[in-house]
Amino acid sequence: MEITISHLTKRFGDKTALDDVSLVLDSGVHALLGPNGAGKSTLINILTDSIVRDQGEVLCNDHEITKLGAKYRELLGYMPQQQRLYENYTAEEFLKYMAAVKGIAPATAGKQIAELLQVVNLWEVRRKKVGGFSGGMKQRVLLAQALLGNPRLLILDEPTAGLDPSERINIRNYIAAVAQKMIVLFATHVVSDIECIAKDVILIRDGRICQKGTPVELIESIQGKVGELPCDLDSLEKLQERYCTGNVYQRREGLRVRIVGDELPEGCLPVRDSIDLEDVYMYYINK
Ligand SMILES: Nc1ncnc2c1ncn2[C@@H]1O[C@H](COP(=O)(O)OP(=O)(O)OP(=O)(O)O)[C@@H](O)[C@H]1O
């Protein structure tokens, strides 16, 4: 399956939330990375056919999704950024309810729910109320509901929001495991969420795609534009005002701040081998 997005534009009054966005999505994890307000949820809302666009096309295997209607929705699994969980339901009851909403026959649903509860490691607690679950367990319930009906296109809007580091890793691993046979669009502003699992990365800022490519291509594209500057806590603030700065590292020699840009300040030690997607993000989102 292939999703082809062409010249998508969406305005809210004077605000252009999406500006002439074009993309092709095929199987594997496509990371949609951008700061708050970049347009990620707007793109997702158009892809889930939840809002009307102003211009552009979204084709699923050459057919416009708005015309496919229910046929398209059958192919879609969606994990929204915020979703009300029915706190008095057990995990199993919630998934049964969601299966009914999706029109999945009870016999098929039962088997699939059992499989999914195991995939997301909630089988043991399936009869416990969702209200008592941790944030990570709730997210796993939501991921399971998105996977009901074997979607071909899985859309995840900040699936790791509010999770602690170990829960983030768990959710990320589940997503990587299920992503092999489907298109996954993973929207986030947290680079580490997608670093090891994304087949390609779409960087979005102010409603426009400012760069896209495989992680390796993107890292290659900023060779020579990343350095580390020795600093101390007093000089750090000034450096952060003047340059595009990233993480601060405690090295044996003292503090070093990562700086990305076309022109690096004097005294900056070039970084070659350890450039990562965090640097890529800083470079293109601030460019
Ligand atoms: N219903 C709406 N009415 C008015 N403006 C909106 C609406 N939805 C989104 N916007 C604006 O469109 C822009 C893009 O918003 P969007 O929610 O798509 O960004 P985002 O990348 O998902 O951000 P976040 O990471 O904070 O969820 C923002 O400036 C936002 O304020």
UniProtKB/TrEMBL annotation:
Residues 3-231 form the ABC transporter domain. Gene3D superfamilies: P-loop containing nucleotide triphosphate hydrolases. The keyword Cytoplasm does not apply. Belongs to the ABC transporter superfamily. It comes from Jutongia huaianensis. Keywords: ATP-binding, Nucleotide-binding, Transport. The keyword GTP-binding does not apply. This is ATP-binding cassette domain-containing protein. It comes from the Bacteria. One of its GO terms (molecular function) is ATP binding.
